[in-house]
């Protein structure tokens, strides 16, 4: 499990939480047992003001049991992540030129080249690396993204071998058939590289996709991104709301027989508190419906 609410969750919210509130959220997530947390992103504060206090948040992260992840888009972001003492960096390469240009100001090929430079420097600094192929399931501007295009982008990124390859349904259009197809791409183009998936539930397919990814993994390592309360989305993708909610996903996995190792009951008040802080009801449903059987603990 990779918890992304402090970053991908908050970056798309109109309300800017204080550094104190962010640290409290992060501490609650860690206390529930989440051990990989995307704490912030090192991007330009004018572009994403919700992440303007990245260094202040990083300085207050409890060290030890959790691997802290920072999103970076360029070498300047990497410099900041290294200085802040992060454990991992997540670098985004967008699968389509139109979205890549609007989101990061570079073409996909330029994004791949930037990733390759960042990967070398991050490894030299002792940071674990993830490359995320964004819009792998569909683009808000170009529409369908052919599997062949994703294959091409993955092959380019694998020239600088990451510690993890992530495939992202940035706008929440994917279905399980696409998960199976892209898992095949990863198996052929990145054999032996641990796989990570980032799903949104914009069209109510995120949980089906996540369960499909878990089932396809078998005994191989796989990571699933999720956001407490289901908050967030990409601020540069029109209508791209709806990360899958951590507590809802953990309930699904736990009831399906997976050992998730997280105290789901501890996350329910976290989701409710986020709703109060952000001024709207969170998309996740478990914080309202509760566990089943009543009073049970799913881990």
From TrEMBL:
GO terms for biological process: ketone body biosynthetic process; L-leucine catabolic process. Keywords: Lyase, Metal-binding. Belongs to the HMG-CoA lyase family. The keyword Lyase applies. Transmembrane segments: none annotated. CDD domains: DRE_TIM_HMGL (cd07938). One of its GO terms (molecular function) is metal ion binding. It comes from the Bacteria. Residues 1-268 form the Pyruvate carboxyltransferase domain. This is Hydroxymethylglutaryl-CoA lyase. InterPro entries: Aldolase_TIM, HMGL, PYR_CT. SUPFAM superfamilies: Aldolase.
